[in-house]
Design brief:
By secondary structure, the chain is mostly helical. The chain contains 10 helices and 2 strands, in the order ααααααββαααα. A two-stranded antiparallel ribbon has the order 1-2. α8 runs antiparallel to α9 and α9 runs antiparallel to α10.
């Protein structure tokens, strides 16, 4: 198995010697200031422009995630931690503001690197067998925009839509 799959199983570390559980226990300030963890939590099929040591999803990795519920469970736990960082939470099959959303709302109102992270998370969830969660996240973000709780540029919204629904036109 690949280092990435073993990392998501909790049996290997990332390129810096950290375990997935270390990322789950990061404080919000650690998540905000560190830029080399998100690629391990939410891998993609292309190299990272920001982290040369980031894993790249292979066909075997994709199959492992699709075949192994434990891998998807750990991915869901990573997703829940990322949502909490944004001040959001899963509620049934929806993504909604959490109790502390107003304190963290700036992450969705001012252009910042978290918008790129959201694109990564939407894409990674879809690729790794959690398409429903990717769609729920996208729809939750759209509700926040409609309610005036998030101010996101049209370009970024288009990236998010394409990350979630790549086969839909414009």
């Amino acid at each position: 198995m690949s280092q990435l799959v073993e990392f998501h199983r909790g049996k290997a570390n990332d390129s810096e010697g950290r375990a997935l559980s270390d990322f789950w226990s990061f404080s919000d300030s650690q998540m905000e200031s560190r830029h080399d963890f998100i690629q391990w939590m939410f891998p993609l099929e292309e190299p990272s422009s920001f982290n040369p040591n980031a894993p790249i999803l292979t066909r075997a990795d994709l199959e492992a995630f699709r075949d192994d519920p434990a891998l998807r469970d750990n991915l869901l736990r990573s997703f829940d931690r990322f949502l909490a960082f944004l001040g959001l939470a899963r509620e049934g099959d929806r993504v909604v503001p959490a109790a502390d959303f107003e304190k963290k709302q700036w992450r969705l109102t001012e252009p910042n690197h978290n918008w790129l992270r959201i694109t990564r998370v939407l894409t990674s969830l879809r690729l790794l067998g959690l398409g429903n969660q990717s769609e729920a996240f996208y729809q939750g973000l759209e509700r926040l925009i409609e309610q005036g709780k998030a101010r996101i540029s049209a370009d970024t919204r288009a990236y998010w839509k394409n990350a979630t629904f790549p086969d839909q036109p414009g």
